[in-house]
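Hey, can you fold this one?
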Amino acid sequence: MTQGKPLYVHLGAHRTGTSSFQMMLAENRDLLAAQGYDLAYPGRDDIPQGDLRLKLPDPRNMGQWERRFLPAAATELQRFVTPDSHAMILSEENIPGRMIHFPAGQFYPAAEARLQTLAAAAGAPVLRAVLVVRDYTDLYISAYRKRAEDNKSPAFAEGRHNMLHMDRGWPDLVRLVFQYLKVQELVVIDYPRRGRSVDILGMLVPELAEVPLREPARRMNHSATDAALLALQERYSAGETLEREAWQQIIAAHRDDITSRGVSEFTKRQTRILEGRYKEHLDEIELMPAVMLLR
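Sure. Predicted structure:
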């Protein structure tokens, strides 16, 4: 395995402003390169110069992580290494896994294999990592709505019981990060406290805290209203496949119709349970050694 550069890893997570963080990296590419840092991030939301394509195992092929995924992952990371750098900043919210498994009651079921693959592919220590976490109610709702924008999706209510009885949560993922990435310190940030992207980078890479980095203007995130999601699901249920531009036009056409249709709601009792669980889990994370929790 080729020797890599030490890594600083931004793990996302999903639906916590990862695109804004990656836009900040793009905005400061030249300055960060001058400081000796390579950058690797995907271009999932049209982020400039984002071309990371890091393929990691899913639940169907976790046992093949070493033979099937490790060589390609190592090669992919090496694409971003430059001769004069001393470390790499990696930002990829899909490292723990995908959100598609939430309605089945599975919280990143392939996280072990994915983290193990990344650690082996890096060929160098992971010095520090950042994980932005979000309360379970909003996380599950946001994940459902995001997927329903461009995929045929079952009714949200069909997955509520499983999401209420999720097999694990944020503390389990934190433990897996330590177990497989063997980070020296993990910064965990509660989503409402995330602040500016440049400040998150300063926590990820303390040496950059005093560097005058630019915070890009926040892009408006035009999430789909209930009316838009119902219109989209009607099209998908009829067997249509919509290109990105087409489904975005439907979202835009229904932007002003903010009337709730109950597309993605937990009951009040379920919300109380999930909110209580999230608070307990933050308390648990706060007591973990080598964790810096911002809440």
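The beta strands are 7-10, 37-40, 87-91, 126-133, 185-190, 291-294. Let me know if you want another pass with a different chain boundary.
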